[in-house]
Amino acid sequence: MSRGRRYEGEQKLNLKKVFAVPAIIIIIVLLIVAMKQIFKADKATIAKKNIELNYFAVYTEGNWGVINSSGETIIQPTNGEMIEIPNKAKPVFVCTYDVNADGTYKTKALNANNQQIFTGYENVYTLQNFDGKMNLWYETNTLKVQKDGKYGLIDIDGKEILPCEYDNISTLKQVKDSIVVNKGNQVGLVNSSGKTIIPTEYVEIQAIKNDSRNGYIVKNADSKYGVINADGDAVLECKFDAIKNIKDNKNYIVNEAGTWKVLSENGAIYLEGKVASAEDMSNGNVIVEENDKYGIINLQVETRIPAEYEDLEPLFDDKYIAKKDGKYGIININNDVLLDYKYTDIVYNGSVEYLKAKNENGTYDYYTKDISMKFTAGEETSLPNGFIAIKVGTDVKYYNYKLEEKVNKDVYTTNTLFVKKENGKYGFVDKDGKVVVEIKYDDATEQNDCGYVAVKKDGKWGAIDQEGNIIVEPKYNLDNNESIDFIGKWHICADSNASYYTDEE
Question: Fewer Cβ in 10 A, N or C end of the chain?
Answer without folding.
Answer: N
